Amino acid sequence: MNNPIYRGRFAPSPTGNLHFGTLLAAVGSYLQARSRHGQWLMRIEDVDTTRRVEGASDALLRALEKFGFEWDGSEVYQSARTELYEATLATLTEKELIYPCTCSRRQLTDLGEAQIYPGHCRHHHLPLKEEHALRLKVSDQIISFDDCVMGHYQQHLASECGDFVIRRRDGLFAYQLAVVVDDAEQGITEVVRGTDLLDSTPRQIYLQQQLGYPQPDYLHLPLLVDEHGQKLGKSTGAAALDLKHPAVSLHAALKLLGQQPPEELASDNLPTVWQWAIEHWDIAAIPRHNLVIG
Ligand code: GLU
Ligand code: ZN
């Protein structure tokens, strides 16, 4: 057999407790990897050190362990990978794809909700100084891909996004750059995550193309939202998960993902629930719409 190995990952940002929305993404990506006898890696996305909450990554990892998640190898921390991101920035700079943006916060807020950057600073030819944000030039091109759950998706980066920031004014690398470098460097073959990142995917594919990286498959899972359509998360005060009855929460997560676990499985032990879930995992059953709870 010459099956290329499946390698997935879970990449939480350690900004708070494990809540149901995070669990759903973890369960989806885990089942996708384990049902294919693939690997599943753990990456802590703490590149934005200004949002770091003391002790949060440890708490998150311990909570995931209580749910029975087992990741391959030891976890990787973005905060320890600055050199890799620097090297990638150097490559992009060499390709003349990077320029400093001196726009004020005010100018950028004036762009409104959509934040489409019109390329003000593209032609200023300013030197690359430390205190400026760095943007990546996008090309006049449609980026499209077929998501395994959400279907066909496309974006014309120039008009729907504009040149985007890859290193922030405060010197921190942007999520878009870090995630692309890490997915490539860790050999990820499929990215499974929440649909809140569906519209980031064309930027990531574009970056992969500029860097000559392979393009992973993508599978975006429906989000948990409240009755106002707001993503449930720490910012909306989503309750931390009760770790005393993980099998019950796991059973509920499976149902939200469209799976049909027998009711009595909820009172079974964790390994039995996982075994059922891996054997019966069916991505065709995953809903394509957001899931309203609460
Ligand atoms: N760190 C991101 C989050 O917690 C997920 C990034 C990704 O899966 O690409 O929302
Ligand atoms: Zn600018």
**Beta-strand fraction estimate:** 15-25%
Assembly of the depicted chains: single chain
Return the string of H and E elements. EHEHEHEHEEEHEHEHEEHHE
Strand order of the largest sheet: 1-2-3
Q: Using the coordinates above, name the CATH class of the largest domain.
A: Alpha Beta
Question: Can you walk me through this structure?
Answer:
- With 294 residues, this protein is an alpha/beta fold.
- The chain folds into 2 domains: 7-81 and 186-292, Rossmann fold; 82-89 and 96-177, HUPs (Rossmann fold, 3-Layer(aba) Sandwich).
- The chain is 31% helix and 17% strand.
- It has 9 helices and 12 strands.
- The strands form 5 sheets. The protein has a 3-stranded parallel beta sheet, with helices on one face. Strands 4-5-8 form a 3-stranded antiparallel beta sheet.
- Helix 2 (56-66) links the parallel strand 2 and strand 3 (76-77).
- Helix 1 (20-34) packs across helix 8, helix 6 (175-185) packs across helix 7 (201-211) and helix 8 packs parallel to helix 9 (270-280).
- The protein is elongated, with a radius of gyration of 20 Å.
